[in-house]
Predict the structure.
Amino acid sequence: MQYQAIAFDLDGTLLSPNATILESSKQAIQKVREKGIKVYFVTGRHHTAVRPYYVEMNLDTPVVCCNGTYLYDFQQDKVLEGNPLTPALASMLINNAQAEGIHVSVYFRNAMTYEELNPHFVKLQKWVDSCPENVRPDVHQVEKFQKEIDSGETVWKVLISDPDLAKMQKFVETLPLDQVSPEWSWVDRADITAVGNSKGKMLVKLLEREGIDPARVVAFGDNFNDISMLQQVGLGIAMGGSEEEVRRKADKTIGLNSEDSIAEELTQLFQL
């Protein structure tokens, strides 16, 4: 099969455990691009949290953000396609989660926000502060999410997290699945977006725009939110250490994200 494009999840996949892109991966991706192969990021992240890596890799392609909630063009600072939460739905999710004592953060059009810090956002803020100013993601505290919603801000996703997994699962089970799509992005975190959103679905829309057959695409992922993407493409690759279900749904499994696994796979696939 002559592959024309590669889709990468970021966290747990292209990014090493310390949130950097391995030098071996960078070099392999550069060689692949020199052969005319397109490279796409398909992530649960907000576009401002993709920017440091996008600039580092000197990409020029649209990015699938927030688990397929929107397609973002960095060149024009433009949302090409999007399916945000309605204000009423966002408010309901926030209020219900907070009533259960579950931590909530909200990803608005241009920023990732929280009312109260939790360990995840403390860690995120440290990473943000380490980024060069020109690519620094926008993460900040708001007084009340509702105030932002009432001002007309677009809500891409509501992120809930709690160390009590049983509490999280119970809450997710109560969600109206005819209105929202919950995706587990980490063991203790779930992303809630409008119904119908997934990485796979938005990647297919992106490929249609680009005139690329999904069968001619390779995708790399590691988590539950990557399954839809891995199953939509010609070759779906799970990282070593992925959840068993992810490995089962992928076409093959390679080594860990801390190793030169991606570079080795690209070298073999594209005869670098």
